[in-house]
Design brief:
By secondary structure, this protein is mostly helical. The chain has 8 helices and no strands. Helix 1 packs across helix 3.
């Protein structure tokens, strides 16, 4: 694959609706299971949480270790972190800050925490309990 090809493929899949992206990944899986898994794993990032509602974020946080969530946020843009922190209660925010502002940790530990969080995010998206609306749509 040409340089940047994988990232461009992920961007194209993200533009598609969830059903279309899933169908395309399944077609790719028949030819190249490893590539399909890599694409699937790259579709959702921790930054995508900025597109969910407060209630959905709190629902996700019930299923994760809050300190680990904070650790996962260490490499996320500060504006996104601020937005996410504004969506949760003070108690939750304090627990997240323990990981976010704690002692220095290896980048590999941050990456591992992000992978755990995004795996749970993917499960919730697949179950329909987490909706990541990038089009700016509001939910009522």
């Amino acid at each position: 694959m040409f340089k940047g090809g994988f990232d461009e493929a992920v961007k194209m899949l993200q533009i598609l609706g969830a059903d279309e992206a899933t169908n395309l990944i399944e077609k790719i899986r028949k030819q190249d299971p490893l590539m399909a898994q890599m694409l699937e794993d790259s579709l959702i990032t921790i930054e995508d949480l900025q597109y969910c509602s407060s209630a959905q974020l709190v629902g996700l946080l019930r299923d994760v270790n809050l300190e680990e969530f904070g650790l996962a946020l260490r490499t996320v843009d500060s504006e996104i972190v601020e937005k996410l922190m504004s969506m949760v209660s003070t108690g939750i925010k304090l627990d997240i800050e323990d990981g976010l502002k704690g002692k220095p940790r290896k980048v590999s530990e941050v990456t591992e925490a992000q992978e755990k969080i995004t795996k749970i995010m993917q499960e919730k998206v697949n179950a329909g309990t987490l909706v990541l609306s990038k089009e700016g749509d509001e939910y009522v």
